[in-house]
Design a protein that fits this description.
The protein has 295 residues and is mostly helical. Helices cover 79% and strands 0% of the residues. The longest helix is centred in the N-terminal third of the chain and has 24 residues. It is globular and about 50 Å long.
């Protein structure tokens, strides 16, 4: 059994991380700019924020830690870059609800990738959850085909794949601190976007929001979400992460009036219900020791 104090610590760390990431989609919506300018500043600032936190935590030896990343760190960085670019494109072409509902399936994609590349066993309940979540995503896609947001949904799918792939590599190299690989991914996304971006087009108030998001909220959130799962089980992390899926669309609806379609609500309900049930079954079975990654 996990030590109760350590367990409470893990729950608190993960919860704060989830709450810190919840305003992300709202701030992206409020900042009135094209997706490439958003991708550039978001990637550059998050990368700087993560590297600052990493250097502060590692002390004088932080440069040596970068050398230890090797090819896995570069591969994870490329996958995190795909996640960063596709996330902004998803929000530009579909609703926040659709994006977050599809992104919530990243742990299931992670299970498939771990089976394919790491040889890990996928439990029967996870296969059932994958099938049910796929059905829910199909319902979301059908609604977007009618509303013209299919491209955004596809980008949300690639966002989930990038996140799942990145953390699969992180799990494979768990002996190395891979936080810099996430920073690298964000820097790569900024490089990808720079040719199509207009970096100096943001007015001061919106640039201030960008600084808040990129230098504070998201680096702190990603840092805590990397640390928290060291103290609690994967199903508990999955349940806490679903808070963003629920809170994100809610605060965008309250602030900006963006309402999901009926089919998105039905499909999202299937996805959320599946993920909640999957996590609860994992908790009931004991779920083992905490993981080093969020998927």
């Amino acid at each position: 059994m996990l030590d109760r104090a350590q367990h409470r610590k893990g729950l608190l760390i993960t919860l704060i991380g989830v709450l810190a990431i919840c305003p992300d989609t709202l701030i992206v919506r409020i900042i009135d700019t094209d997706p490439w300018t958003m991708t550039f500043w978001r990637g550059l600032l998050i990368g700087i924020g993560l590297m600052t936190l990493y250097a502060a935590s590692e002390g004088r030896g932080w440069l040596k830690g970068l050398a230890a990343l090797g090819r896995p760190g570069i591969l994870a960085g490329l996958l995190f870059a795909m996640n960063a670019v596709c996330f902004v494109l998803a929000l530009a072409y579909t609703t926040v609800a659709n994006t977050l509902m599809i992104l919530a399936t990243a742990p299931l994609f992670g299970a498939l990738l771990s089976r394919a590349f790491l040889g890990e066993v996928v439990e029967r309940r996870t296969w059932i959850a994958i099938a049910a979540a796929t059905a829910g995503i199909a319902v979301i896609f059908s609604g977007s085909m009618e509303a013209g947001g299919l491209f955004g949904d596809v980008m949300a799918m690639f966002t989930a794949l990038g996140l799942a792939g990145g953390f699969t590599v992180v799990r494979h190299s768990r002996a190395v601190n891979m936080v810099p690989s996430m920073a690298l991914g964000n820097f790569i996304s900024a490089v990808i976007a720079i040719g199509l971006a207009a970096p100096f087009s943001l007015p001061p108030p919106e640039f201030g929001l960008m600084l808040l998001l990129g230098l504070l909220l998201l680096p702190v959130a990603f840092g805590l979400l990397t640390l928290g799962p060291r103290y609690i089980t994967a199903p508990e992390v999955s349940l806490l992460m679903l808070l963003e899926t629920a809170i994100g669309p809610l605060i965008v609806w309250l602030a900006l009036g963006e309402t999901p379609s009926n089919l998105a609500l039905i499909g999202g309900g299937i996805v959320l219900g599946t993920l909640i049930l999957h996590a609860l079954v994992g908790l009931r079975r004991g779920a083992g020791e905490p993981d080093d990654a969020i998927i």
